């Protein structure tokens, strides 16, 4: 995860898992997991040097062969170089369709609407769906609260492949993505 994304997930108001977005509860350190990370061996995909998982992050930061390996992967999945990121619609923050509040992430919008608008029967456009390539910005949901709870229980971006600039490639052809993933997995062996 990049620092801004991780910081967003760890906000004091609602710390959530960076992958599944479920709520994190305060607890003790996972010592068994730490031990497993310290005792599990792996191999650098760049230079083939063996090391423990606990050392991999610092090694990857200084291994030029690993950096080249990562760049090859980025080039393999990027169809065109992206020069202007302003062409991408904002699919990370959303306004509340009932009130003037803005800049909610998906989970924040769901929480906000459940807390403040659960009894509002006004038909509104789902800002999350409207931001997607397949979304209709004019479609008004008959029961927006039910829609939120059924369609947006998890963040879609968790399941969409990333492009070189960490923007989701929502328009990519699924068959192309599958072929690229399979080719990449064969190369990684």
Automatic annotation (TrEMBL):
Entry annotated with the keyword Iron: no
Reactions listed under catalytic activity: S-ubiquitinyl-[E2 ubiquitin-conjugating enzyme]-L-cysteine + [acceptor protein]-L-lysine = [E2 ubiquitin-conjugating enzyme]-L-cysteine + N(6)-ubiquitinyl-[acceptor protein]-L-lysine
Entry EC number(s): 2.3.2.27
One Pfam family of this chain: zf-Di19
First-tier enzyme category under EC: transferase
Molecular function via GO: ligase activity; ubiquitin protein ligase activity
Pathway in which this enzyme or protein is active: Protein modification; protein ubiquitination
Keyword terms of this UniProt record: Ligase, Transferase, Ubl conjugation pathway
Domain C2HC RNF-type as annotated: residue spans: 44-63
A single BP term in Gene Ontology: protein polyubiquitination
InterPro entries referenced in this protein's UniProt entry, alphabetically: Di19_Zn-bd (IPR008598), RNF_E3_ubiq-protein_ligase (IPR051438), ZF_C2HC_RNF (IPR034734), Znf_RING/FYVE/PHD (IPR013083)
Protein name listed in UniProt: RING-type E3 ubiquitin transferase
Protein species of origin: Oreocharis arfaki
